[in-house]
Amino acid sequence: MTDSTTKDGGRKGGRRRARLAELGLVLHGPHLAHQPLLSVVVHGGVAHVSGQLPRVDGRIVCLGQVGVDVDVAEATAAAEICALNALAVLEQALGDLDRIERFLRVTGFVASSPDFAEHPAVIDGASKLFHLVFGEAGRHVRSAIGVASLPRGAAVEIELSVAISS
């Protein structure tokens, strides 16, 4: 299965998928939330995405604390992977990334040492990817938060909300 096919062999399309392909970007997921959680909740024209970790082929690819075990460049790349994983669960939930009208909010969490202060630079990996793929619709409000640890030892996690068409 390539990144441009569904699990049942059907073709995926649309301008957002074409833009991802043009940029050479691959959706590594979807990596679904465990029970009883949901990966995406759609309500009132908004899709809310649960926290996404930097997983590729089911494995977290960036572990530890930024500023101790992981440098800013590695963490920024991990935030981009988190963003791609968010797009994968959105595509599964919505059927098509072209239903996304606008990114509303991105919250990024960075596992970091107490003296680390470059959280925004790390989460820029996700923010820049959304803008690159979706243009002006990919711009959003954002928080970048430092934490002592994240699930499964990941260095970065993002969650987001997007406005969608019906």
Describe the structure.
With 166 residues, this protein is α+β, with helices and mostly antiparallel strands. The protein has one domain (29-164): RutC-like (60s Ribosomal Protein L30, Chain: A, 2-Layer Sandwich). It has helices at 15-22, 72-94, 119-134; strands spanning 40-43, 46-52, 55-56, 59-60, 100-111, 141-147, 156-164. The strands form two sheets. A five-stranded mixed sheet has the order 1-2-7-5-6.
What is the C-alpha radius of gyration, as a whole number of Å?
Answer: 15 Å
Question: What share of residues are in beta strands?
Answer: 25-35%
What is the architecture at the second tier of CATH? 2-Layer Sandwich
> What top-tier CATH class fits best?
Alpha Beta
Helical element count? 3
| Biggest pleated sheet | 5 strands, mixed
Instruction: Name the helix and strand elements from N-terminus to C-terminus, one letter apiece.
Output: HEEEEHEHEE
At CATH level 3, the topology is 60s Ribosomal Protein L30, Chain: A
Helical proportion? 25-40%
Poorly predicted ranges: 1-11
The secondary structure category is alpha+beta
Whole-number average pLDDT?
92
For the termini, the CA-CA separation is 28 Å
Number of strands: 7
Strand order of the largest sheet: 1-2-7-5-6
Number of separate domains: 1
CATH homologous superfamily caption: RutC-like
Global outline:
globular
